Amino acid sequence: MAKPIRLSHVAHDGKARMVSVSEKEKTHRLAEATGMVMLGEAAFALVVKNKSKKGDILAVAKIAGIMAAKNTAGLVPLCHPIELTKIDIWFQLDRGKKAVHIFSAVEAFAKTGVEMEAITAVSIAAVTVYDMAKSVDKGITISNIQLLKKSGGKSGDYIRRTKPRN
């Protein structure tokens, strides 16, 4: 008989709980995530030409993403605070789609994974691009935020095998 699938943050009585990592060993953890910001012609041109009145949109979005990763435990209620050892955020501009593809890589030597930190970094970087370009285009769309891969820990490695949906 197959073991029933349970959500780790749900106790036997159905109430939310923070998972104990007390007995876990520290291991090297890595997670990468991605997301996309679709812009209109004028807003995309501001990003490409770095002509926003608010400053360098991608530089500010990178800093925002890094800050978000470092503060994930304060934003996501049941996340453990983790001492991160690396946070990297980078961008690819897609001229055909007028889109900014955002990528993050987060690492730690910890008892729990860094997937939420990688996803939070991409999410807040995307929101920051929106905030800095919204005066030119209110129709900006944020989409496809997802985990690309993770390594370390009891559940092993994960690599997204399918192309991110556009």
Structural features, described:
The chain is of the alpha+beta class and 166 residues long. The protein contains 4 helices and 5 strands. It has helices at residues 41-49, 57-70, 72-75, 115-133, and strands at 27-38, 84-94, 99-110, 141-151, 158-159. The chain has a 5-stranded antiparallel sheet, with helices on one face. The longest helix has 19 residues, at 115-133. The radius of gyration is 18 Å and the shape is elongated. It starts with 26 loop residues before the first strand and ends in a 7-residue tail after the last strand. The mean pLDDT is 91.
Number of helices: 4
Task: Assign an overall shape.
Answer: elongated
Helix/strand order: EHHHEEHEE
CATH class: Alpha Beta
Task: Trace the largest sheet across and list its strands.
Answer: 2-3-1-4-5
- Fourth-level CATH superfamily: Molybdopterin cofactor biosynthesis C (MoaC) domain
Number of domains: 1
The percentage of residues in β strands lies in: 25-35%
Structural class determined from secondary elements: alpha+beta
Oligomer: single chain
Total strands: 5
Helix content: 25-40%
The first-to-last residue Cα distance is: 39 Å
Rg, alpha carbons? 18 Å
